[in-house]
Amino acid sequence: MNKTINNSKNILSSQLSRRSVIIAGLAGIALATTGLSENVSRVAATQIAQPPAGKTLLVRSDIHPSVPVTWLSNGHQIASGGKTSSIDIWDATTGARSSSINYSSINNSPFAVSPDGKHLVTANNSTASGTTPPPIATVWNTATGQRVLNFKNPPVVNPLAAALDIAWSPDGKYVAAVYLNVVYVWEASTGKILHTLNPNGNISRVAWSHTSRYIVAGHDALGSGIINPQIYTWNSDTGALLYKKNGWATAISISPDDHFFAHADNNTVKIRSLQSGAIHTTLPAVVNNQVVAVGWSPDGTRLAYSGGSTQSVMFDGYVNVSVLATGKTLHYTGQKMAVMHLSWSPDSTRIASVSLDQVVNVWQAR
């Protein structure tokens, strides 16, 4: 672990020195710059070996752009939202659907996949017409699409409120969700509430550290009227708040060594120390565009971030992949509209990204 942490420190130190050179000498250049359905098109490979970085491998349409996309741990399957109140599990190479989860309140719902890929948890994101509040979180079997468990609701529930984000701990034991500006932590196997983390502030995003020891939460900048957004970090074992820092967190991603976390802050990405919250570096701003998704590669060498215009129909979507050791950036241009979600494959070679025009692309990222 110490070797991995030192490597991560060296990577980010190198990035800092190169960034000053880039800003001084190259101002204006962004560092971060077979059974297929009719909605799936496969891009023919031009090489037998690994495709070149930036090459689109598959395009799958008719998905819901407000729902995340997540790569399963087997590296062969992807979960994404459908437009018919469902979450689809499909083959990352062919696009063929293997299973679906159908539930009336899933449409637009955030979800998270268990580390072993066998289960999926959805956060309730619907309004209830009756007097009985729906479950805030539900666990499903990814292979069969069957419901496994409804989590216990907290004491205070608003039937018209939505759970805004949800995350499964990397050790597989816990699930955290943002509901009514509070982070609730459940035991994944029983649905029992273990912690109630109240920041006494506004939050809508949550993420686990890779050791499952820390939880980071913040609020996204999209359409928000919040004046003083803050980011919070807790010890997940004790529930103690470690610190809070000013800034937006439209998306949060924690480095695999748990030494840093990255968050989307308006039109840039900030990298902070996970232990203290101190800013380590800030990537150059994306001119006139929001950053709405951030993802650290599983091998820790790259940071991907994406966005575009989210309030109007403009063809300015982007995904940038920054190589932290060199400052070199891959600019992916395979999607036209704002790219709202992204997910790395477990082997850190491919990215699945979802854009506002209801398309998910799978492409070579290195």
From TrEMBL:
Pfam families: PD40 (PF07676), WD40 (PF00400). Keywords: Repeat, WD repeat. The keyword Repeat applies. The keyword Repeat applies. InterPro entries: Quinoprotein_ADH-like_sf, TAT_signal, WD40, WD40/YVTN_repeat-like_dom_sf, WD40_rpt. WD repeats lie at residues 69-100, 332-366. PANTHER family: F-BOX AND WD REPEAT DOMAIN CONTAINING 7 (PTHR19848:SF8), WD40 REPEAT PROTEIN (PTHR19848). This is Uncharacterized protein.
